Amino acid sequence: ADMGAKLLCLFLASALLAYYIYTPIPEDLEEPWKVMFITATFRAMGHLAEVADQLGLMHYMETLMLITAAEYVAPTSDENVTVMDTEFSNVAVRLYLPRKASDGLRRAVVYFHGGGWSLGHAGMKSYDHLTRWTSNRLNAVVVSVNYRLAPKYHFPVQFEDVYSVTKFFLQSSILSQYGVDPDRVCVAGDSAGGNLAAAVAQQLLKDPEVKTKLKAQALLYPALQTLDLNLPSYRENENKPVLPRLLMVKFWSEYFTSDSSLREAMASNKHVPVESSHLFQFVNWSNLLPEELKKDHVYTSPTYGSSELAEKYPGFLDPRAAPLLASDAQLRGLPLTYVLTCEHDVLRDDGVMYAGRLQAAGVPITHDHAKDAFHGVMMFVLGPAKLAVGYRLLNRYIEWLNENL
C-alpha cells in the first residue's frame, strides 16, 4: 500500500509539474527548458503563497521567504576571501575581505540584495556567490547589507538601514580600518537592491555630514518608480518569468503597507492623487523611452486616485522610494553609473528611463540592455539551473566595476 501511495504522489507531482513547466516563454531566450523549470518553480511558490495567505496560515511573503531560507549559507571563508557576519551601525551585514596582499588601498562595494524589499538575504547562495566573486575578482572589500524586510518593516526602514550602513562605512576611520581607498567606493544592488542603491546615491548628495563621495553606482534591473505600473514593459511582460506584473505590484505596495487597498489601487494603476500630477513628467514614457521600446503602445494620461491613500502612505511619492521622481537638478551630481536592463522584465522601462535621464543630466553612464534576458537572471548562475546568460551578465557587471571603480 505504501508503494501505491508513493506512486500516486509521484504521478500527481509529475502531472502538476508538467502543467507548470510547460509555459510559453519568449522565443529568444537561450536554454528554454531551464527557463521553464525556473518559471515553474516560482509559479508554484506563488500559488502556494496565495493559498496559505487566503487560508490565513502565513503571510504571502513569509511563504516566499522559504526560498530565501532554503538557499541560506553560513558565512564561510575560503583561500581568497575572509567572510564574516557583523553589524555596521546596528544593521546586520556580511563582510567579504580579500586575503591576497594589496599593493595599496583597496576598492569597496556596498551591496544591497534584491527581493522586493520583503525577501532575500546576503547569505543566499546566489548572493554569497556574487559578492564573494566580486571581492575576489576586484580584490575589493564587499559589504553586503541585511536590511530589515517587509511585511514586518515598511518604508523607510529598508532605506534607512542601507543608508546608515553606507554612511557608517564612508567614515574615514572605518575606511582606513579596512584599508579602503575613499576615492574608490561604489554602491550596487539588483532589483529592489538596485532601487536602494539609486536612492542611497541620491541621498548622499544632499547629506552635508558625508565627506566621502561615491565613485560609482551599479544598478542591476532596478525598480525605480511607483507612479505608472502600466508602462510598455509592464504590459508586455505581464506574465514573464520570475516577476509577473501582479507580483511586482505586491512588492511595491508591501514596501509601504500591508493594507490591501494600496495594492488594489496600484493593480489598477489608480493610486496617484491629482495633487501629485506634476510628478508624472519624470516617468512619462512617451517622452523618455526610445522609439524601439514604444512599439505600438499608446500613452494615456493617468487616472488619478484618492488623496487619502497618498496621505496615509506618502512613501510611494517619495524619491527615496522612487528615485526616478528626483528632479533633473538632483540627478546632476550623481557618480559614474552602470544600469543593466532586461528585455523580458516589467522593470525594463524604469531602468531605461533612468539611464536616459541621467545621460541628459550629464552623468557618465553605461547602459547595458540584455535582449535575451528576464528579471533576476543573475541569480541563476549556480547549480543545475545555471543560465549562460546570467553568467554572461554577471561577468559583464564585474568587468565594468573592474574598469571603472
UniProtKB/TrEMBL annotation:
Active site, UniProt feature: 191, 345, 375
Keyword annotations of the record: Disulfide bond, Hydrolase
SUPFAM superfamilies reported for this sequence: alpha/beta-Hydrolases
Lineage: Eukaryota, Metazoa, Chordata, Craniata, Vertebrata
UniProt protein name: AAAD deacetylase
Membrane spanning stretches: none
Family per record: Belongs to the 'GDXG' lipolytic enzyme family.
InterPro entries attached to this UniProt entry: AB_hydrolase_3, AB_hydrolase_fold, Arylacetamide_deacetylase, GDXG_lipolytic_enzyme, Lipase_GDXG_put_SER_AS
Protein's organism: Spizaetus tyrannus
